């Protein structure tokens, strides 16, 4: 009977680990969605900047105050932000793939343990 108990303990531990992996996956997906929203917002700003003339004035909100900002500086800031966001998206994509691999391994481990428990139960019956 201790073999069956050992299998059940392994199953419990693997299930807990799988839940943690699923939480990590959920957090990574949420981060990816936020980055997508930021990317879209910044691309929209970049498109708006493309139609500006040198006479147009750009203001940057700092707290409750709008501060005049140089066009070139504003465009550079947006380009830098876009590059950063794209880099973060690449990083999160890799993280998602890694988490999915771990998730699949944990699923397989759980199935193996469940199969072993079923076989043990059938032999005992």
TrEMBL record:
Xref: InterPro entries: PFD_beta-like (IPR002777), Prefoldin (IPR009053)
Keywords: Chaperone, Coiled coil
GO cellular component, one term: prefoldin complex
A Pfam family recorded for this sequence: Prefoldin_2
Organism: Lentinula guzmanii
Official protein name in the record: Prefoldin subunit 6
Cross-referenced Gene3D superfamilies: 1.10.287.370
Coiled coil: 4-48
Species classification: Eukaryota, Fungi, Dikarya, Basidiomycota, Agaricomycotina
MF-aspect GO terms: protein-folding chaperone binding; unfolded protein binding
Family: Belongs to the prefoldin subunit beta family.
């Amino acid at each position: 009977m201790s073999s069956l108990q050992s299998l059940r303990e392994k199953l419990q531990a693997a299930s807990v680990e799988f839940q943690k992996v699923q939480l990590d996956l959920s957090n990574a997906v949420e981060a990816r969605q936020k980055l997508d929203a930021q990317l879209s917002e910044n691309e929209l700003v970049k498109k708006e900047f493309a139609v500006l003339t040198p006479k147009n004035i750009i203001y940057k909100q700092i707290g409750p105050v709008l501060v005049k900002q140089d066009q070139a500086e504003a465009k550079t800031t947006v380009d830098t932000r876009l590059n950063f966001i794209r880099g973060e998206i690449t990083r999160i994509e890799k993280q998602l793939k890694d988490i999915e691999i771990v998730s699949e391994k944990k699923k397989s481990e759980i199935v193996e343990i469940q199969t072993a428990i079923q076989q043990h139960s059938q032999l005992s019956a």
